[in-house]
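Hi all, posting the design record for the shared folder.

TITLE: backbone redesign
STEP: 1 of 1
STRUCTURE INPUT:
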């Protein structure tokens, strides 16, 4: 009887962020909750800017709403194209904090003053297949390797 109401942790199988791609219907639009909250909180500065510029620009001041919404989504939802694909605001903050012999990655400080530099080399070489079984011979050039495949 005690096994009926058992609770199992699915986090090890599905991952900590498994629910981030789930969508729900909010009003009449299907979107992620994160998208909804970004849009809702971006309306605060958009409304303030619209109210400030309304006496000067009249209905043109409503252009602040899509501008601020776009900026909020650009900074929070967009990810960098290279590296760890951080969110844009994280990459900007890390770049701002970086100084000489100190590097920031994902908000954590990395000290590079004691790091020794080395060379990354290729550790594999083509193996000639026509060699005696048990002992693989290496090709000297790429052309020799191509010949061995034929």
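Okay, here is what came back for every position:
SEQUENCE:
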């Amino acid at each position: 009887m005690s096994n009926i109401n058992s609770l199992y942790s699915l986090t090890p199988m599905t991952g900590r962020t498994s629910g981030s791609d789930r969508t729900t219907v909010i009003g009449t639009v299907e979107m992620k909750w994160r998208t909804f909250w970004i849009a809702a909180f971006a309306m605060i500065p958009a409304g303030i800017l619209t109210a400030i510029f309304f006496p000067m620009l009249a209905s043109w001041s409503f252009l602040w709403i899509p501008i601020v919404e776009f900026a909020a989504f650009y900074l929070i939802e967009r990810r960098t194209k290279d590296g760890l694909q951080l969110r844009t605001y994280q990459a900007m903050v890390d770049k701002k904090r970086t100084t000489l012999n100190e590097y920031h990655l994902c908000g954590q400080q990395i000290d590079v003053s004691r790091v020794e530099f080395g060379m990354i080399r290729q550790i594999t070489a083509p193996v000639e297949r026509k060699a005696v079984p048990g002992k693989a011979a290496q090709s000297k050039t790429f052309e020799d390797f191509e010949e061995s495949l034929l």
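COMMENT: The chain has a mean pLDDT of 78.
Let me know if anyone wants the other runs.
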